[in-house]
Amino acid sequence: MTFAVGGIAGILNGSMGIVGPPVILFYFSTPIGLAAGRASIIAFFVGTDTVGTGLFAVQGLLTSAILWRTLIFLPVLVVGVVLGGKGYVRTSEETFKKVSLYALVALSIGLGLQVFI
Q1: Angle at which helices 20-29 and 34-58 pack, to 10 degrees?
Q2: Rounded to whole angstroms, what are the CA distances from 110 to 95, 102, 107, 116, 117?
Q3: pLDDT in tens for each of the 117 residues of the chain?
């Protein structure tokens, strides 16, 4: 199952630049527990983003405009992580899963609508 999820994630990342949905669904459906699944998802995204950024840098694709945007949105990211962590601690596993899945559905619909715009 892990190999299949990795393959699907790779295909989605290469074709559309979205790797998250199959990985998130996989970890939320495994019996390892929500805390371990959440930690694994965070480690996965940090790892893939670090490798991707390194590859972009090696190929000269990191411009000053991208670096400025990163600096501008970094505080938003930090606030999101802090609020998400607090929300995770305060909610039940079922509520957390539901909210996460609804967010994935909304993102998927939004990405799908971009095809028609």
Answers
A1: 160
A2: 22, 12, 5, 10, 11
A3: 889 988 998 898 888 777 888 888 888 888 888 888 888 888 888 888 888 888 989 999 999 998 899 899 989 988 988 888 888 888 888 888 888 888 888 887 887 788 787
Rounded CA-CA distance 104/16 in Å is 15
**Contact predicate 28/38, CB 8 Å:** no
Whose tokens are 């991707």? That residue is 52
Q: Is 60 helix (H, G, I), strand (E, B) or coil?
A: coil
The CA R_g of the chain, rounded to the nearest whole Å, is 16
